[in-house]
Amino acid sequence: MTTRAASVKTPFFMPVATRGAVKSLEPAEVAATGAQVLLANTYHLHLAPGEKTVKKLGGLHSFSGWNGPILTDSGGFQVFSLAHVRKITEDGVTFKDPASGQMVVITPEKSMQIQLDLGSDIIMAFDDLTGLDPAKAKVRTEEAVERTHRWLLRCIAEFNKLTAKTPKAKRPLLFGIAQGGLNKELRQKSVEFVQSTEVDGLAIGGLSVGEGTKDMHDMLEFLAPLYDPTKIRYLMGVGEPGNLKFAIEHGIDMFDCVLPTRNGRHGSVWVSGDKKLNLKNGQFAASKGPIDKNCDCHACQQGYSRAFLRHLFKAADPLAGKLASLHNLRYLQRICEDYR
Amino acid sequence: MTTRAASVKTPFFMPVATRGAVKSLEPAEVAATGAQVLLANTYHLHLAPGEKTVKKLGGLHSFSGWNGPILTDSGGFQVFSLAHVRKITEDGVTFKDPASGQMVVITPEKSMQIQLDLGSDIIMAFDDLTGLDPAKAKVRTEEAVERTHRWLLRCIAEFNKLTAKTPKAKRPLLFGIAQGGLNKELRQKSVEFVQSTEVDGLAIGGLSVGEGTKDMHDMLEFLAPLYDPTKIRYLMGVGEPGNLKFAIEHGIDMFDCVLPTRNGRHGSVWVSGDKKLNLKNGQFAASKGPIDKNCDCHACQQGYSRAFLRHLFKAADPLAGKLASLHNLRYLQRICEDYR
Description:
Distance between the termini of chain A: 13 Å
Structural class of chain A: alpha/beta
Strand order of the largest sheet of chain A: 1-11-10-9-8-7-3-2
Oligomer: homodimer
Shape of chain A: globular
């Protein structure tokens, strides 16, 4: 996949740099795990420090020190999952900034402006998400899919307007998001709609939000034959090794997920065979070996023992979460490399 | 100064690795600041994971990944400052482990055993500390000095017993601690007593515990002509740039302090001229420059802006505290290097 920042190899996994940085990690450390593209959150960066400040400081790359491609999400998922007071209308979403208490409005047009100001290399269309509440699901899912499509057209129009003076090669990519919950008819309609537009990539949104693994895999299997071979496919929010493998084998090119870093900070690490260990467990108190003797991550190669890591977790030293994050990120990158 | 782990250049500053690691930093990152020797806390490591576990894992160097010399304090200061329930007798100190609630006894002999089991390269004698409470100070200070001297003799005897089979070159160094509060007569007596024993170094304890700068400097000035030129001098707990300079100019070789790392984690950094800035301040919200344009630390050389660091502090990302810690550690090491 070619972006204005660099060309990258698929399939790939994007570490989540919520506020521009992957928690506790320096850009060079993230790159050393094999990461090629970072994901940053529009919602968080819009609230603080604000896209105008980031722009003034030279954009996200210069601000954060990450020189590779950056994808920004549209803010839709965070409004859905984090904002407590929100109102969705045809125009966009209104929610309360938890920090300032002020009401904030994000529309498809606003999302394009924010992401362009941030200096993103891969911009996501602003979508309307539904939860999995079965009582509301049927009506809301269809409504949300239709709205997501109308919003996509507004995103494309605004994106084209705002980038009109930018030479094609210097423009970011724009991805559309297909929704539809667990309804196959709606999903097919949505994938086909997104692919019929001029977007550079197709994202599958609204999966990995609490449905079972079987439901997710069923849907990925169903969608696989529908993909346009000329467009990149991005499965949003997926990062469990098993799901990653299944999705890669069903045509997915890109992933992002907070799991490797969030789990890592809580002491949970993947080891050979996709097994999970919790480094805080007492069984590791005198364990001399590294997290995984087959692993080539920084933490394992430096020879930090499970006992030392457990000790650091017990002492609440952020170094523990950092090393476990690096391990988990490398674990997922290795899966991607194996498929390449 | 020559230790069994390596020879190091004086004057030097020891970063504090309370539980074997300098909070949020890898050993190689600490070494890159110019640090030659780490200080680890006997009190904390005795409570968790315990010196027997550390010994089983190959000692502190192997456990923590720090290959240079390690100094362990005796535990006395932590019992004085951290343990709420404690009883001091001629035998030693009894206190309550805040985590387990169990009563723990540390005697001069026990302190030697713990530090030797940890694998320390520079072992501190177990001392009796007094606070600065003026009501108790006179009697207690004299009593504490006398006891510190009796305990030093017990430490030396136990150290010699436990290391009897170790060739001289493979033995750790042993330092005695002079006490005496702000009483010059007692201080002189204590310095002379410690220097009259076979210890390798003289530590000045019980300063930088809340007395004013003037009182501390007065005492350092008073003690300077009394030092035995054949023994290394270590001023415990000092790390303010001004105090470091004053002490170096008055014959001190070694320092340790939590300030550079603790302050760093709270956003406070030293910049040229020993000024302090707080990176959390709003004034840095759009500040493009590094912490200090004259600084050669990792954070400044990588070009992380004050604005980015402020943003990370606001987001409670441990990366902020890590980078500020590295900056502050380098600040103190540069002072030491300048004097060398």
